[in-house]
Amino acid sequence: MNKALIYGLLLSTLMVTAPHAVHLPLWVSALCFSVLVWRSYLTYSGNTLPKRGLLTAITLGSMGGILIEFHTLFGREVGVALLMLLATLKLMELRTMRDAMALLFLSCFIIITNFFYSQSLPTGLYMLATLLVIATIWVHLNAPEITFKPRLRVAATLLLQAIPLTLILFVLFPRVQGPLWGMPQDAYSSSGLDDKMTPGSLGKLALSDEVAFRVSYPGRPPRRDQMYWRGPVLWLYDGSTWTPGRNRQGIQPNFTDATDPIEYNVTLEPHNKNWLFLLDMPNHISITAGLSDDFQVLSREPVNARLRYEARSHLRYTANMQESAGQLQRALQLPQGFNPRARELAAGWRSKADNETGIVQEALAYFHQQEFFYTLEPPLLGRDSVDDFLFNTRRGFCEHYASAFVFLMRAAGIPARVVTGYQGGELNAVGNYYIVRQSDAHAWAEVWLAGHGWQRIDPTAAVAPARVERSLSAALPDNAALPFMSRNPPQWMRELRLNWDALSNRWNQWVLGYDSELQFALLSRLGMESVSMQKMALNMIAGLGIIIALFAAFMLRHLFKREQDKVQTAWLKVCRKLAKAGMPRAAHEGPQDYAKRVAIARPDLKDAIHDLANRYSALRYRGMANHEQEFLYRATTFSPSKRAS
Amino acid sequence: MLELNHSLFKRPTVLTSLKQKFRAWLFRPRIEHGTVILTQRRIFILPTKQGLTFGVVLVVMLLGDINYNLSLGYVLTFLLAMMAVMSMLHAFRNLAHLEIHAGRADAVFCGETARFQLHFNNRSELPRYRLCLKGMADIAPQCFDLPARQSSDVFFELAALRRGWLETGRLTLYTEFPLGLFHAWSYLHFDTRCLIYPKPLDEALLPPGYAPDGEGKRPVEGDDDFAGLRNYIAGDALPRIAWKAYARGQGLQVKQFATQVGDELLLNLADTPDSDLEGRLARMTRWVLDAEALGLRYGLLLKGEELPSGNGTAHRDECLRRIALFGLDMAGMV
């Protein structure tokens, strides 16, 4: 195998493995990289490949390392790590052309595994570039003598021709909704809300720029302080952590006086959890989902692919005027032996107030009037975390306020619970939709008041109204650590970012989110009546057939064009004239032999025919095009009937 | 290809015989002369083993895409599949409309390599890459490129194992360019043939010559007339030792005899001492070569078939040709 080919294979292997370097354990990336460097050095210096025994030892050693690192040889991460090692080590025993082909096939597989982690537009473009490199090497492998330029041209032609065909396949290939078989839980990366809340858990999310979901409103968007996207509802408190607890059978969610309907479309990023985000209170959703007793909308399967749904909510409502005794009991649970001062404070409010609404007002006023600060970097709290927060540190993020508030309510005998989710979002004027990021994660409280049902109370709003009315960055002091972009970047950078997000949103909706549902919708909009799989398949085959036929016609046009060769036509004319004079040319006879024969039969034509035959041979076989005019002239004026003597 | 369409449920014997018949019909021998143009009807395409493997890889990829709902995975899988499909068209084009005609094949001696000239003409603007030529024998193919708008000669080589006419047999011109996933091929069976002379003996004494007109005789070693003395060499026959000369004190001398021969030779098959025909023809071949090399005039007599004396390369080639074809059915084919 020649050196250029091996350098090519090294490049393609580097290109397919590089994006994985960040997901893999450091030692795997380092090992793969050093094998690549080693192989480059061997190729450069012309040394022989290492013995098979050494390679086996490295392979077994790294397998052992993976087993220690992951405790298993199955699963996505392990699979990717093994593929990486396999591909790089395969380079070390590249002996035949078949080895090289196997490496190329393996490279294609590795590209696919990268899509587990990212399917963004840049990833797509990078894939195209990688594919071009792979195709170029592939051509080289099958034609070792071909030089670089035609090799690249052939590969690029193949790739470019495949693009329109791929487009047809992509749109029309009948989509089957996966999964076909169960997949390991770790198949999808996830980040985002958890169904647990400890002091600091949301604060960590606030540093993440990642998109949680995008929302567009066909009509007027709601006010910002109405954008409460409901996530997990937390009931059980153990003194430090809030969890959903065991769900007791409550009564059916019941919304009375529901008004102010609002329609919206959500494109939810995969988060590997069941919950779907809707505005309070949900009324309708376009996909199959259930409504829990605490008003959470849950899908049947974990959301492990981007999901699009249309939904309707009512912004004004009365929720569960009647609540089951069991649920109210749960909403009053408190851990024994924690936070005595907070309990004391709550008991004091209880004794003073004449009704429950008064207690709630009292608590909000307490947060508002006392010296509380909204910060992403709250100090650590002691064992009695609520006491510590309320009376000592007084610095916290939304989860501190929600947690303390619900604790106080329960201590005062008002059923209350913590609700987590997202609040607000950033308007992207380019695409006219809202981007809700992980940094918009929020926690608030709900209290149940007799005669009013469950009511949302956001204690954070009492401390930092800007958080709810504007954004996180508006609510925080200027020196707080925040994702760079949440701050106030220059205008052009903001615009660039919003444009990019609008493009990504398109990409997500139309390319990545293209599933059987969207396929049916698109095809019926394009005018296909009663869309069915068979119809799609037939259209797909017809479409492919037409385009391939067009390509074939274009590619073969040179070959079928019967070129009018002036020189040959003239020579054939001479032969025809001689045939008429009784001396036809035999099919196998070359010009020289024919001329000799003619010269013997007709000595008077000897000079003329030899001259013509010589000129013809020179033009045809030696490419002396500059004598063409002379030959054509002599051929047309040649006349065998004229006797020269 | 079509043969795959046969029902899978037929008994294997029927299937096999049908297959054979189909093959025999599809690939029926067509020995051609003149220029062959590779039209689309002459070009066949099937996936290679690697092509089939690649198909399996694509199916696995597609299953992964469906299972994990990888939209970009679909894109990659489709791109690869369509590149493979287009590579089929490229393979076809790589062969299409080439013009080929058989050129000469110079006669060689048995045991040498016969080289059949094939004249390839690529009239198109399109360079053809990695065309391979393979004979019936199981030997490595010869691969070459054809630049655009050029004609080039390719020599198909075949070992010459027997005297007589050697034919190329059916040649396969194939290409797997550009991706090695499809095998496009065409059969070439030209009426070209190469004459194989018998392998000459390493050395053989020429038969005595004669002079039809009595002139130009020259002595060669023989036993008719006394021709002189020379020094004894160990191993000389005792009766030949010149004892008289020895007695005269001239040392051991050996009597030499010579036969008067003319410088015209009649190379007669009947004069060869060998037991089998091939051996005799091998000796005759050596004789012809030596006689020509010595600049003698020589004629040929092969069991009643006589070629009058002459010399020069043309005469030598004619003699060799007759010897090569002697006793073979193809002798009459010129």
Describe this entry's structure for a reader.
The complex is a heterodimer of chains A (645) and B (334). Chain A is an alpha+beta fold and 645 residues long. Chain A is 50% helix and 14% strand. Chain A contains 23 helices and 18 strands. The longest helix of chain A is centred in the C-terminal third of the chain and has 28 residues, at 533-560. With 334 residues, chain B is an alpha+beta fold. Chain B is 29% helix and 32% strand. Chain B has helices at residues 12-26, 49-68, 71-95, 243-247, 277-294, 313-325, and strands spanning 35-37, 44-47, 99-102, 108-109, 113-122, 128-134, 142-146, 150-159, 164-167, 171-175, 182-188, 193-197, 218-231, 253-261, 264-268, 297-302, 305-310. In chain B, the strands form 5 sheets. A 5-stranded antiparallel β-sheet of chain B has the order 2-11-10-6-7. A 4-stranded antiparallel β-sheet of chain B has the order 1-3-5-8, with no helix packed on it. A 3-stranded mixed β-sheet of chain B has the order 4-12-9. In chain B, helix 5 (277-294) runs antiparallel to helix 6 (313-325). Chain B is elongated, with a radius of gyration of 32 Å. The model of chain B is unreliable at 1-10 (pLDDT under 50). The chains are: A alpha+beta (645), B alpha+beta (334).
